[in-house]
Amino acid sequence: MDDRQTAVIAEPAVARRAAAPALSRPRPPRSQALLPFVAAAVLVIAWQVLAQVFSLPIYIAPTPIQIVKTLVSELPMLMRNFVPTAIESLIGFLLGNAIAIAVAVLFVHSRRLEAALYPIAVFVNTIPILAKAPILVLIFGLGMTSKVVIAAFICFFPTLANMVRGLTSVNPQSLELMRVLSASRAEVFWKLRVPSSLPFLFSALKIASTTSVLGAIVGEWIGADLGLGALIIEATHNFRSPLLYATVFVSSAWAVVFFAVVSFAERRIVTWKQGEVS
Amino acid sequence: MSGAGATLAVELENATVRFSSERGSVTALENVALQVQPGGFISLLGPSGCGKSTLLRLVADLVPPTGGTVSVLGGPPERARLNRELGFVFQDATLLPWRSALENVRLPLEVGPKKRERAGLRTPEELLRLVGLAGREHALPHELSGGMRQRVAIARALVSEPRILLMDEPFGALDEITRDTLNEELLRIWRETGTTILFVTHSIPEAVFLSERVLVLATNPGRVRELVLCELPYPRPLSVRETPEFIRIASHLRALLQTC
C-alpha cells in the first residue's frame, strides 16, 4: 500500500491537489457568498470604463457592453456551435472517467497489472494535450469522435490516480475488522473500498468536469466545422473580438455549470467527513 | 460463572508468535499458557511491546501462531472466526464514516458467510439501547463523541452474539470520566450477555476494576509474568476502587509491572 501512495506523489500537480479531499475548508458564511459577484461586477465596470476612457479599438479589447450585444445577436449561431462541444465534453467525460474507474479497479485487484501499466499511464499523461490532440485527430478523423476521445483522454489520468489511491487508502483497522467478520473480497470491495474512494473520486470528477470542456475545444481547434473551439479560431482569424469573447463566455459558462452539477452530486452523496473519524 | 468440565473459551499452550522481517525477527510472545473459562473476564496487562495485543489477535485469528497451540471454544481460532463466535473492539472505534450508528451496528449482519444465521436475539436497535445510545441511531460517526463511537463499536461487536469478546484497549483514547462510565457499563453488559471477555489495557485500576483475573505480561520477549486474581465481589460500584482490597491488588500489580 505504501508504494502506491508514494507513486501518487510523483504525479503532476493536478492529481496531487485532487488527492487530498480530507482537507476541504469549511464553506464561507452566507454573507460572504455574494462577495465574488460583487468583485466580478466591479471588475466588469472598471473594464467598461477603462476601455472607453482609453478608447481602445474594438478588435483589441471589446467592452463588456459590446460583448453582451454580440452574445444576444449571435445567440442562435453560438448555440449551434455550443451543442457539439457540449455533447463531446459530456460523452468524453463519461467515457474517460468510466475507463479510468474500471482500470483503477483492475489495478487494485492485480498489483502486477498495475506495476506493468501504471508507468505507461504516467508517461502518456506527460504528453501535453496539444501534442496528443493532432495524433488523435489523425486516428479518429475530423468528426466528433476525435473530440470525444481527446476529452476522455484529458479526464482519464486524474481520475485513475485518485481512484487507485481512494480504493487503496482504506483504514487498515477497518480491513482487520472485515477479517474478523470473515468478509469476502467482494464484500470488502463494495462495503469498504468503494465508499472510501468516493471523496477521492469526486475530487477527480470536479477536475474532469472542467478539463473535459477544455479537451473538446482543443480538439475542435485542430479541425472542425462546428463547435465552440472552431468558432474561437474563426473569430480570432477574422478579428471578430466581441464574438471571440462571447464564445469564450459560453464555453466557460458550460464548464461552470458542469462543475456545479458534479459538486452538487458530491454534496448529496459524500455526506460524511473523511479522515476525521476512524 | 461456568460449569466444571465445560469446553474452555480460550486455551493457549506454549503459544509463540515470531514476526520476521528483513531486519531480523522479533518474538512477540513466547511460550504463553492461558486458560479462560466460558463467561470469564480476564484482562491482559503489561508494558508496551509485551505482546498483549498480539495475544488478542492470536485468538481472533488475525495472527497465526508460529509455535504452540491456540484453541478457541475447543477448536482452531479460524473456526471460531468463521462461526462468528468472536467480537472484536479496537482502540479506535473503527466505524465506517458513511454509515449511521445503526448501520454500523448492522454491518456484521451484512458480511461474512454466516451473516444471516448469526443475527442474535437482540436487534441492532436494542443493542444501541443497551449501550445507551437510544435516539442517536441515525447519527453519523462524525456527529458522535469519542465515547459514543466506542459504544457503537461495542454494540457492533455484540450484534452477532459472540461467545468471546476481544477488546484491545477500547477505552485507551477516552477521557477519565467517560472511561469510568464505560467501565461500569461494560460490566453490566458482561453480566447481561454472559459473554467471555478478554480485555487488553495498560491501566492498572481499569484492569482490577473490571476483571476476575489479570494476566501480567513481561516484555522482550512477551511472556507471562503472573496471573493475578481480583477477588472483589460483583457487582462492583466505582467506589470499590477505594477499598483496601482493591488498593492491595493494584499495588501488587504496580510492583509486578516494574519488574516486567
Any idea what the radius of gyration of chain B is?
18 Å
Average pLDDT for all residues of chain A: 87
CATH topology of the domain at 10-85 and 162-258 in chain B: Rossmann fold
Helix content of chain B: 25-40%
Cα-atom Rg of chain A, whole angstroms? 22 Å
What class do helices, strands and sheet pairing of chain A give?
Answer: mainly alpha
Architecture overview:
The complex is a heterodimer of chains A (278) and B (260). Chain A has helices at residues 2-9, 13-18, 30-33, 35-53, 64-73, 75-109, 111-126, 129-140, 144-168, 172-180, 185-222, 228-237, 241-269. With 278 residues, chain A is mainly alpha-helical. Chain A starts with a helix and ends in a 9-residue tail after the last helix. By secondary structure, chain B is α/β, with parallel strands linked by helices. Chain B is 31% helix and 25% strand. The longest helix of chain B is centred in the C-terminal third of the chain and has 18 residues, at 176-193. Chain B has a domain at 10-85 and 162-258: 3-Layer(aba) Sandwich (Rossmann fold). Chain A binds chain B through residues 171, 173-174, 176-184, 187, 191-192, 195, 198, 270-274, 276-278, and chain B through 60-62, 81-82, 84, 86-88, 90, 92-98, 107-108, 110-114, 140-142, 149.
List the keywords:
heterodimer; A: 278 residues; mainly alpha; MetI-like fold; 13 helices; 79% helix; disordered N terminus; B: 260 residues; alpha/beta; Rossmann fold; 6-stranded mixed sheet; 9 strands; 25% strand
Characterize this entry briefly.
The complex is a heterodimer of chains A (278) and B (260). With 278 residues, chain A is mainly alpha-helical.
What is the secondary structure topology, with strand pairs?
The complex is a heterodimer of chains A (278) and B (260).
Chain A (H helix, E strand, L loop, with lengths): L1 H8 L3 H6 L11 H4 L1 H19 L10 H10 L1 H35 L1 H16 L2 H12 L3 H25 L3 H9 L4 H38 L5 H10 L3 H29 L9
Helix pairs in contact in A: 5-13, 6-7, 6-9, 6-11, 6-12, 6-13, 8-9, 8-11, 9-11, 11-12, 11-13, 12-13
Chain B lengths: L9 E12 L2 E13 L4 E5 L6 H8 L7 E6 L4 H6 L3 E4 L11 H6 L17 H7 L15 H13 L5 E5 L7 H18 L2 E6 L2 H7 L2 E6 L4 E7 L14 H15 L2
Parallel strand pairs in B: 3-7, 3-8, 5-6, 6-7
Antiparallel strand pairs in B: 1-2, 1-4, 8-9
